[in-house]
Design a protein that fits this description.
The chain is built from 4 helices and 56 strands. The chain is mainly beta. The longest helix is centred in the N-terminal third of the chain and has 29 residues. The protein starts with a helix and ends with a helix.
Length: 855
């Protein structure tokens, strides 16, 4: 019975609970939801404009904001105040109105350039805005703020900029050196820039913001594997005498990445286990880190973060494939992985990585999408992208879909089945082509790189007869893309925004070997098409041939009439030069006499060359940054870093006082201070500094086991002195020899302490250096005078040397002339006559006295 009672109590309790829940549900169901009460809030507007005063034609920044933030911005950073209105009243009472949305911090910035002298008034108007959600029903009232500035005729002066350096410099670059951006562009590796697209390219191809080496001076080298001759009679045939170099598909040297003066390179991909990445200082070769766990890297990026709280760049390295893995360039540590990646990567104008993908749906339509780095890697998992903070989640595995900024359905124009592909992304346009193995036309279409919208399409036929696609596309630069008709050797250029013909056909190139042109690059002014026989520079605006460059005759070394530029990716532009490498491709053997040529982009003339077989047929291993050219020399399997090196100047003078009127021997050295190790078994630091004229032969001697050039000369040294009276004496110029020594003979004009400076002003091969020393010139020795000397007025020291200094060979200095007596001294013979006369007088006097005593 007790158990039954307990059971009945449980049953009653359950019934009561069910009834209560039913009543609650009924109330919830039938009672209408309560809406937020309507409210209104004041807003407070502020505005500042600076600088004030400002010169006419100079830019001011108007910053205006509300104290109140949009209440929705906390949940959605893209929810901002709308229609911030800025009314600008000029001195002549005319007005300009600028309307923009606020940023996520409830503010806006407008740059404006006044064009009249007088008072400008800036009025910021917030027009009011209603915010309505399930919990908010509030009207934010209008508010206004006004300020004025004075515009004057004379411009105000900005802080002076530190000039572009002529002396040695290294990273990091102080942020205040803002105009140094023109010489400090990075090299991002196997990826294209927004403004340039290399034909068939696997590398950046151009660095628009760097200086280029002005000579063949080698800073340092390092081996990536055994190289050069194998040795022994069994390997004497040319086609089997060298160690493997990875010329075609097992590349030893893939495009390196250079960021902030650090070079990142893969271990040779042709040597198992084919993994590992090393970071070294570009200027010194010092290893910074090595990570054997990175399979390889394809390119690098520097993501520039700008949000209301933070501003700055983040350097990354990327390993690509079906997944993209991001690494920290500072340490080599893995950060995260993005799965399902494929497409065409490119670096946009802000430094952000974008990946475009075109996926056919059928023969008429496809999906065109754009993935961007900030959305795809800036937050964890499924968390929404937050414009207030870019925070890469360490160790995360993220999906490709997370980073898609847009994905649209577009018409496509295949030639066979559904085959279409992205040819290039340039200047805001995605250029897509159809493809077929053999064709007499090509479908082409342009899509907006910002929205995916179809801009134009055409069936391109440029007189081709059974053209193969392998050699059709040319380089793309600044919104112009080129094509090559290899049957007749002509080129065409088209507007990437419209597909319209800009110029072409060019005059036919009748050189048979140039029908195999497979590489090219443009800088916006010229397109350089590097064929097997020659490099031809076409004017980007007109298509006219500006110049053509040939390598010399190959003689008996190779079957071509001239040395070939056959490698597909060995054409590089930067610092006003294009670098062209003599190579061949695929299974062909090495041959002697290959060089890399530095060619002036304006004139087409050779500036300098260096011996070596540089560059892979498919690897594209050249790089250019911070004034340094990096290339793989297959003759010895070493990587050469070519650039301007440091120098050191010394000077010595006599340690003892030199009498006035005698010449002084000043001598010293000027030496290379580069960090490399030469093939002579000695460091490069301390070897003689050599003239630019002889640099190519000298580098072959130091690094390539070639004979020492007999006619090599050194560099020019300028010597000056500060004399005892503080005047500058220009001692003169002399030239060091092939041992690095210099000397000069000079006669100081006055006695006292001299401070001498020897200056090497630098060259295309070396940075400037100088050294100093001191010596003493004593008064000339003088004999006793017969009578007191007449005082003379002091004579002022000449401000310049009236004598011509005599440069002398340091190993055989001219003998010093013995000191001569001063011209106003009494001759020795005079002293003898006077002495004899005195003696005679003394004897006569003594005789006279003796006679007188006798009397």
């Amino acid at each position: 019975m007790k158990n039954n009672k307990h059971t009945r109590n449980q049953t009653v309790t359950a019934i009561v609970l069910v009834l209560m829940l039913t009543i609650a549900f009924s109330v919830t169901t039938f009672v209408p939801s309560v809406q937020a009460a309507h409210t209104e809030s004041d807003t407070y507007a502020f505005i500042t404009v600076a600088p004030d005063p400002v010169g006419v034609g100079q830019t001011v920044s108007a910053m205006y904001w509300l104290v109140e933030m949009n209440p929705l911005s906390g949940a959605n950073q893209e929810a901002v105040w709308q229609d911030f209105t800025l009314v600008i009243t000029k001195p002549d009472e005319t007005t300009e109105t600028i309307v923009t949305d606020a940023n996520s911090a409830a503010g806006a910035v407008t740059n404006y350039t006044p064009d009249q002298v007088g008072t400008y008034t800036f009025t910021f108007k917030f027009l009011g805005e209603q915010i309505t959600t399930s919990t908010i029903d509030n009207y934010y009232k209008p508010s206004t703020a006004t300020t004025s500035i004075t515009v004057q005729e004379d411009p105000i002066e900005a802080l002076p900029q530190n000039p572009i350096p002529n002396d040695y410099w290294q990273r990091p670059i102080n942020w205040e050196n803002q105009i140094w951006t023109s010489i400090s562009g990075n090299w991002f590796g196997d990826i294209h820039l927004w403004s340039n697209w290399q034909a068939h390219g696997k590398t950046q191809g151009i660095n628009p913001d760097t200086i280029a080496p002005g000579s063949a001076h080698v800073m340092w080298t390092f081996p990536i594997a055994f190289g050069g001759q194998i040795g022994g009679s069994m390997y004497t045939d040319n086609d089997k005498s060298n160690y493997f170099v990875g010329k075609s598909y097992k590349e030893y040297w893939m495009p390196p990445v250079i960021i902030n003066g650090v070079m990142f390179y893969n271990s040779p991909l042709g040597i198992p286990p084919r993994t590992g990445v090393t970071a070294v200082n570009l200027l010194t070769g010092e290893e910074i880190w090595h990570n054997e766990n990175i399979p390889s890297i394809s390119f690098g990026t520097v993501y520039s973060e700008h949000n209301p709280n933070e501003v700055g760049g983040w350097p990354y390295l990327w390993s690509t494939g079906s997944n993209y893995t991001m690494y920290d360039a500072n340490t080599g540590r893995e950060i995260l992985t993005v799965t399902g990646m494929s497409g065409t990567p490119i670096i946009d104008p802000t430094g952000q990585l974008l990946v475009y993908r075109l996926q056919p749906i059928n023969a008429t339509h496809g999906f065109l999408s754009m993935w961007n780095q900030s959305r795809g890697t800036g937050s964890r998992g499924d968390e929404p992208w937050n414009s207030w903070a870019y925070s890469t989640p360490a160790g995360a595995v993220l999906s490709y879909e997370k980073g898609i900024q847009w994905n649209v359905t577009v018409p496509i124009f295949p030639q066979t089945g559904t085959s279409v592909s992205i040819w290039a992304v340039n200047d805001g346009v995605v250029l897509v082509t159809g493809s077929a193995s053999i064709q007499d036309y090509q479908t082409e279409a342009g899509y907006s790189a910002y929205t995916g919208e179809l801009l134009w399409h055409t069936n391109r036929s440029i007189g081709m007869i059974q053209e193969t696609t392998a050699c059709l596309p040319g380089p793309v630069a600044n919104g112009v893309y080129t094509e090559h008709n290899k049957q007749v050797g002509t080129y065409y250029a088209f507007d990437i925004h419209t597909g319209e013909l800009l110029w072409g056909p060019t005059e036919p190139d009748t050189n048979a070997w140039n029908s195999l042109t497979r590489q090219g690059i443009g800088d916006g002014d010229k397109f350089v098409m590097a064929g097997v026989a020659s490099a031809r520079a076409y004017n980007a605006q007109t298509g006219g041939l500006d110049w053509e460059f040939f390598a010399p005759s190959a003689g008996l070394e190779v079957a071509n009439p001239t040395y070939p530029f056959e490698g597909m990716y060995n054409c590089l532009i930067g610092g006003g030069l294009t670098f062209l490498s003599v190579t061949n491709s695929h299974g062909n053997q090495l041959f002697r006499g290959a060089k890399m040529y530095a060619v002036n982009m304006t004139t087409g003339e050779e500036e300098w060359s260096i011996d070596g077989f540089y560059g892979e047929a498919h690897g594209g291993g050249h790089a250019l940054a911070d004034g340094c050219l990096v290339a793989h020399n297959m003759y010895d399997n070493q990587i050469y870093i070519i650039g301007k090196g440091r120098s050191a100047t010394t000077i010595s003078a006599p340690n003892t006082a030199q009498p006035l009127g005698l010449s002084v021997l000043l001598q010293g050295t000027v030496t290379d201070q580069s960090p490399g190790d030469t093939c002579l078994g000695i460091p490069a630091a301390g070897t003689p500094a050599i003239s630019d004229q002889h640099m190519s032969q000298w580098m072959s001697y130091l690094y390539m086991q070639k004979p020492k050039p007999a006619d090599a000369t050194g560099v020019t040294v300028h010597l000056t002195a500060i004399d005892p009276n503080g005047n500058t004496q220009d001692i003169g110029y002399t030239t060091s020899n092939s041992l690095g020594n210099y000397a000069i003979e000079w006669e100081p004009p006055v006695p006292g302490l001299y401070t001498v400076t020897a200056t090497f002003e630098g060259s295309e091969s070396y940075f400037r250096s100088e050294a100093g020393t001191s010596f003493i010139v004593s008064e000339a020795a003088s004999a006793p005078a017969a009578s007191p000397a007449t005082p003379q007025q002091p004579t002022a020291t000449p401000s310049t040397n009236t004598q011509t200094p005599t440069p002398i060979q340091p190993t055989t200095p001219s003998p010093s002339t013995a000191p001569q007596p001063a011209t106003n001294a009494i001759p020795t013979s005079t002293y003898l006559v006077v002495g004899a006369t005195i003696a005679v007088i003394a004897i006569a006097t003594a005789v006279a006295i003796a006679i007188r005593k006798r009397k």
